[in-house]
Design a protein that fits this description.
heterodimer, A: 209 residues, six-stranded antiparallel beta sheet, B: 209 residues, mainly beta, 45% strand
Chain lengths: 209, 209
């Protein structure tokens, strides 16, 4: 005998898909939060930041700033640091990544995100930009948190090349991404003075909801 | 038509109206929820270069838990590198350990740093303190467990070893390394030596429940 299963809170009937004959289910945690809600879009940003002039400690080299309409969920940050300059004894170049909680960097090169599916709406970001070849971003009025990631490369010998990759997002884990709320941003900065001819490539992947 | 009713006699299964999918939550057969909501998720990061060659160990980082929540270490990520003067036939080591007992009068009373909340609306972390320094005031008395170790040769300068200890795994609530009430997660230079120029760039990510 066929029995139709009906929701306890509405007249919605449970669906069994016609080809697979599988009943539809959606994962929630016991607090009532859907574990993997659909994003409104998923995006990528990238920059090649050339260090032909070196950088000073505290320089801001890349910035992605959110607007006020959606939350950005950072899924992954990856890239590479390479050093092709003259070896500097007892020296390690260190970059840092952190969230900003107020203000938007200016200057440098404005850029646009890549949509992972061209049918997505444009990102809700407020701004995306990077510095290069000695031109750092201007950070007047920007408030920085303490770093969440340090990326280092010793330059006491030449030709170092380090691929870094930090994946926040894990399947079925709603709370794993790093979040940018209203008007918050994420930046890449020089933690130390950066030796001439140290380049860094950065890529950021995020969802929006 | 029928409703699915809980064994408690009141709660009815919900079928979401748009998807016509029933809500489900993953549990193991022992009744433990998988991927449960933490009270918060946190990160901290540091870069530290050892300045001295003196043949000693030293503690360089510690998360000292309080007595209100468990700390679930999701990940320890970074790079162990060396920019000092090469030492023939030598290797240096870093270890991460859990300590179950320690001397409160001397242990890790250095200036604390504030963990970063992965979502700004989370409550502040419940850990007692997070400290980082080239030579922390350690109060270790009982070493419970070595959680990881990393080694690097210093027989040439400019060497580096990236590492990524991803403890957390989806759908597995026993995967994280747990720091219980008043336990300590500590990172230290290990072995009977430390050499000027050995450096650690490190990010630690954890949930609290």
């Amino acid at each position: 005998m066929a029995v139709e299963i009906v929701s306890g809170v509405s007249s919605t009937k449970w669906t069994v898909d016609s080809t697979s004959k599988a009943g539809r289910v959606t994962l929630y945690d016991s607090s009532g939060n859907e574990l993997r809600p659909a994003p409104t879009g998923s995006y990528l940003a990238h920059a090649q930041i050339l260090g032909s002039s070196g950088w000073s400690a505290g320089n801001t080299l890349f910035a992605l700033t959110n607007s006020t309409t959606k939350t950005m969920y950072i899924r992954k940050i990856f890239g590479s640091i390479l050093f092709e300059g003259t070896a500097a004894a007892a020296t390690t170049n260190v970059f840092e990544i952190e969230r900003t909680t107020a203000g938007t960097p200016t200057g440098g090169n404005a850029d646009n995100e890549s949509k992972k599916n061209t049918s997505y709406a444009a990102s809700a970001k407020a701004d995306l930009r990077y510095g290069s070849a000695g031109t750092a971003l201007t950070t007047t009025g920007v408030t920085f948190e303490t770093p969440i990631i340090h990326i280092a490369l010793p330059v006491s010998s030449t030709s170092g090349n380090y691929f870094f990759s930090y994946t926040f997002d894990l399947p079925n884990q709603k709370y794993s991404p790093f979040e940018l709320g209203s008007s918050q941003g994420i930046v890449l900065r020089a933690n130390t003075a950066i030796t001439v001819d140290t380049d860094i490539n950065i890529n950021i992947e995020w969802d929006e909801r | 038509m029928a409703n699915i009713v809980s064994s408690n006699g009141t709660d009815k299964l919900t079928v979401d109206p748009t998807s016509s999918a029933a809500r489900v939550t993953l549990y193991d057969s022992e009744g433990n929820e998988l991927n449960s909501q933490p009270t918060g998720s946190y990160m901290t990061s540091f870069y530290l270069r050892n300045p001295t060659t003196d043949g000693l160990n030293s503690d360089i980082f510690a998360i000292v838990n309080g007595n209100t929540k468990q700390v679930f270490i999701r990940r320890v990520w970074g790079m162990f590198s060396f920019d000092g003067t090469a030492v023939a036939g030598a290797t240096r080591r870093v270890v991460g350990v859990r300590l179950s007992d320690w001397d409160r009068s001397v242990g890790w009373l250095d200036t604390a740093i504030t963990p970063i909340k992965k979502r700004s609306s989370y409550a502040a972390s419940a850990v007692s303190r997070v400290v980082v320094n080239t030579d922390l005031a350690s109060g270790a008395t009982t070493e419970d467990t070595v959680l990881f170790n990393i080694a690097i040769p210093i027989s040439s300068t400019g060497t580096y070893v990236p590492f990524d200890f991803q403890f957390e795994a989806p759908n597995n609530n026993k995967s994280a390394a747990v720091i219980d009430f008043e336990q300590v997660f500590q990172i230290r230079w290990d072995g009977a030596a430390r050499t000027a120029g050995q450096s650690l760039a490190c990010t630690v990510e954890w949930d609290e429940r």
